[in-house]
């Protein structure tokens, strides 16, 4: 069977993404085995006169297809949409009938041209994105959901007014009044102020358990295993590192061994509201 002729297939199917000029920029093979996938890919390249060196492997491996009767361009709707956003049209050499097949092997490649285009656009987007530290330095009215417990005073302009969990009424009055500098509202619940007009919004995520363990280790002067950090997410912040460290030190002064003191401190610290 000609690999370029659309047909019902039982061993492998090829999907491609082509641009308006008909250039093949994307190739995906589904097959009943890895060996068949490689064989089909080679056969397709030869039939189309394409060179493997012009393409980059981006994904390969088993894919669960349990519950599916066939793989078609319709079943690949998400792939079709993704390619469309890149200006490519999804085509195939038929459908792959699955019957009782639970897994298929897939190989996905993109052209070097498309790969460079996508990565270049991604780099440009990343370069244009300001991180939260840079936003805070801009000197504009900013709502900060500070879940990490960062000390904002070192990150904002000197003339900024920092308010922690102020009333909505207070903030509304300040935003509408005359002042010498920007207003920085720090909160753990940005939703409280959703109806107020800020120039910028910043969300500083909480520490990961690994980051919390590192910070606590530095504060206590001994290694804190990540496995002991069984705190809820709302307590994974720098302020709580300090509070927990003081609690551990107090327990050690009472005669507890360091590890035992740490376990007790974590339990006491996490049992609150």
Describe the model.
The protein has helices spanning 34-48, 77-85, 112-128, 132-136, 168-176, 209-220, 238-253, 258-270; strands at residues 7-9, 12-18, 24-31, 55-64, 70-71, 89-92, 94-97, 103-111, 142-146, 161-164, 183-187, 200-204. By secondary structure, the chain is of the alpha/beta class. It has 3 domains: 7-126, no CATH class; 132-204, no CATH class; 209-270, no CATH class. A 5-stranded antiparallel sheet has the order 4-8-3-2-6. Strand 10, helix 5 and strand 11 (183-187) form a beta-alpha-beta unit. Helix 6 (209-220) packs across helix 7 (238-253). The chain is elongated, with a radius of gyration of 28 Å. The model has no long low-confidence stretch (mean pLDDT 92).
| Major sheet size, sense and barrel closure | 5 strands, antiparallel
Structural class: alpha/beta
Q: Which segments are poorly predicted (pLDDT under 50) over 5 or more consecutive residues? A: none
Strand tally is 12
Rg estimate, integer Å: 28 Å
Into which percentage range does the β-strand content fall? Answer: 15-25%
Average of pLDDT: 92
Strand order of the largest sheet: 4-8-3-2-6
Number of domains: 3
Query: How would you sum up the global shape?
Result: elongated
What's the order of the H and E elements?
EEEHEEHEEEHHEEHEEHHH
Report helical residue fraction: 25-40%
- Helices, by number, come to 8
Span of the ends, CA to CA: 68 Å
């Amino acid at each position: 069977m000609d690999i370029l002729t659309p047909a019902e297939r039982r061993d492998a199917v090829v999907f491609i993404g082509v641009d308006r000029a008909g250039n093949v920029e994307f190739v995906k093979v589904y097959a009943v085995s890895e060996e068949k996938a490689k064989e089909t890919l080679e056969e397709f390249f030869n039939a189309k006169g394409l060179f493997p060196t012009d393409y980059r492997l981006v994904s390969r491996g088993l894919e669960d297809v349990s519950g599916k009767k066939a793989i078609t361009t319709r079943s690949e709707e998400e792939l079709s949409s993704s390619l469309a956003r890149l200006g490519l049209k999804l085509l195939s050499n038929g459908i792959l009938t699955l019957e009782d097949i639970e897994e298929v092997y897939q190989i996905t490649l993109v052209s070097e041209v498309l790969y460079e285009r996508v990565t270049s656009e991604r780099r440009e987007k990343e370069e244009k994105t300001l991180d939260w530290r840079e936003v805070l330095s801009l000197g504009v009215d900013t709502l900060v959901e500070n879940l990490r417990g960062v000390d904002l005073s070192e990150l904002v302009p000197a003339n900024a007014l920092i308010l922690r969990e102020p009333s909505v009424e207070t903030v509304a009055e300040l935003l509408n009044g005359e002042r010498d500098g920007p207003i920085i509202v720090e909160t753990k619940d940005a939703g409280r102020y959703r109806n107020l007009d800020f120039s910028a919004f910043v969300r500083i995520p909480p520490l990961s358990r690994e980051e919390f363990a590192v910070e606590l280790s530095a504060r206590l002067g001994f290694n804190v295993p990540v496995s002991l950090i069984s705190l809820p997410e709302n307590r994974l912040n720098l302020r709580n590192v300090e509070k927990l460290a003081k609690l551990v030190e107090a327990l050690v002064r009472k005669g507890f061994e360091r590890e035992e003191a740490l376990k007790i401190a974590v339990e006491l610290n996490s049992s609150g509201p």
